[in-house]
Amino acid sequence: MSAKSPVDTLFERVVDRGLCTRCGTCVGVCPANAIRISDPLGLSLPERSGACTSCGLCLEGCPGERVDFMKLESAYVGEGHSDSLLGIVRSAYLSHAMDPGIRRAGASGGVATALQLFLLRERRIDGSILYAGHDSEPWRGEGRIVETEDGIAAAAQSRYHLSPMNTALKRLFEKSGRYAYVGLPCHVHGLRKLQAAGWKTKAEIGPVIGIYCGNNLYFEATRAVLRKLGFDRLEDIVSLSYREGRWPGDFTATDRNGRTRSISKLDFNQTIPFYANHRCLTCIDLTNELSDISIGDGWAKEEASQEGWSIVLARTEEGERTVRDAAAAGHIHIEGITLGEAAGMHSHAFDLKKKGAFIRIALWKSWGRAVPSYDREPPPQKLSRRIAELFVASQFIVCSSGAGRSVFKRLPLGATGAAFRFLRKIWMRRSK
After folding, report:
1. Confidence band (pLDDT; 50, 70, 90) for 432?
2. Averaged pLDDT score across all residues of the chain
3. How far is CA 215 from CA 14, 42, 218, 361, in A?
4. Which of 145, 293, 327, 389 has a Cα at 20 to 30 A from 204?
5. Beta-bridge partner residues of 313
6. How far apart are the first and last CA of the chain?
C-alpha cells in the first residue's frame, strides 16, 4: 500500500474534518497546482486538482489544525512580554490617515492604506500582497499582488466574506524585491507557518500588517442581504461596499441601472449567527498577534466623533519604525494609548475569542466535533461564563442550520438588526 500524499493527509486531517480556515495557503504554495478553490462564493473549500509531488508545503503552512503561537511569536515578533489579550506590543496608538479621502475610503481610519502608500512612495516596498476587489466581479474579492498607488488605494475597505487571500502567494514566485502583506489572522498564521518551515521566494515579505478579525462569513450572507435589498442577480451589481460613508459605514450596493440601496454595517452584523464559518468560532486570535503591525476599529474615538479611527499596535521593531516614520512624514496621525485602553474598546470581541473560543473548543470536543489545538493555556473561566457559552454555541449551531437560514431569509430587512445591536451593547458593557 502506498503512503498517503501530503495532499491526502491535508484533506483527511483538516478539510474533511471541518477545520479549514479558508486562508488559501495550500493553494498558494502548491508547486504542482494539485489544490484549487473553485467555489469562492460557496463553501470556498480546497479541492484536489492534480497529482501531489509530496513537497509537504500545504501541510506545513496550514493553520487549520494547529497554531503554535509562542514558537511563531518568538521567531517573528520578539521575546517581549505577551499580553494575555493583545499579544506582544511595543507601542499602541489611536490613528487615522491624514488624507481625508483615504480616511473616508477605509473601513476605520484608512491607516492600512496610508501605511502602504507611505512605504511605496519611500521605496521601502515594491508593492503589496492583499485582498482586493475582483476586476470583473465587483461583488467579491480576491488575493492579489499590486504594485501601484492606485492598486493599493482600490483595495481599501473590509470585505465580509470568506477570503482565501493566500492563493496570491503563488504569484510571488514571479516577483523580486520587497512586498508588504495585509491579511487577517488566519492568513498571517499560514504565512508564518510557511516561513517557519523554510518556505522562501526571491521576493521578501514585510512588513506584515494584520487586520483584527472576529469571524468571517460565507458569501451567502452577502447574497441574502442583497436579496433583501431587492438585488436578485449578482451579475447586475456594479459596486458593493461593506462600510460605505461615515463610521461605522453602510453595506451599500449599486446595480447597472444606477439603483443604490444600503443598510447600516451594524445591521449587516445580524448575519453573523447564520453565516459565520464555524472554524472562526474556535480561533483565539482577534488582534493578529503574529503581525508586525495590527490594525482594528478605534471604537471609543469613532463612537464619539463618527469619523474613522483605528487602533494600531506596533509589535516589532520594523512595525514601530514604520508607524512612527509614517506619522513623521504626515501620512497618518497617531495618539499614544495604553494597552488597557486598546483592549477595552474590543472587550466583547475578546470575550468571544479569548474566553468563549476555549470553552467552545472543549464543548465541541466533548460533542465529538473536530477542534484545533494551540499552545496557549485556557484562561480561568467562571461557571456563569461556561453556562452562557452553552447558549452562544447552541445559537450558532441552530441559526446556521438549513432551517435557521431559511427563517433568516424570510425575515424583513432589519427585523433582527435592532435586537442584535441591543444585545451587542449589553455584551460590551458586561465584558469590560
Report:
1. low
2. 93
3. 18, 17, 10, 15
4. 327
5. 92, 294
6. 57
Residue bearing cell 461593506: 242
Dump pLDDT digits (tens) for 223-237. 999 999 999 999 999
The answer to whether 186 and 130 have CB atoms below 8 angstroms apart is no
Residues whose CB is less than 8 angstroms from the CB of residue 289 and which lie 6 or more positions away in sequence, other chains included: 69, 73, 77, 82, 86, 87, 88, 185, 210, 315
* pLDDT score of 431: 65
Q: Which three cell numbers stand for residue 267?
A: 445591521
Q: How confident is residue 1, by pLDDT bands cut at 50, 70 and 90?
A: very low
Domain count of the fold of the chain: 3
Residue 305 has pLDDT above 90, yes or no: no
Cβ(120)–Cβ(149) below 8 Å: yes
**CA atoms of 18 and 36, how far apart (whole Å):** 17
* The 310-314 sheet, strands edge to edge: 141-146, 127-133, 178-183, 204-211, 293-297, 310-314, 91-97, 332-336
- In a shared domain, residues 332 and 185: yes
Residue 302 has pLDDT above 60, yes or no: no
Residue 1 lies in a domain: no
pLDDT of residue 428: 66
Burial group, residue 49, by CB count within 10 angstroms (0-12, 13-18, 19+): middle
Q: Are residues 162 and 139 in the same domain?
A: yes
Nearest to 296 by CA among 78, 87, 148, 120: 87
Q: Are residues 19 and 158 in the same domain?
A: no
Share of the chain above pLDDT 70, in %: 95
CA atoms within 13 A on the CB side of 182: 29
All three cell numbers of 375, joined, read: 499552545
CATH number at residue 24: 3.30.70.20
Mean pLDDT of 73-78: 95
Helix (H) / strand (E) element for 358: namely helix 357-366
- Given 28, 46, 61, the domain boundary residue is 61
User: 361-394, pLDDT tens digit by residue?
Assistant: 999 999 999 999 999 999 988 999 999 888 888 8
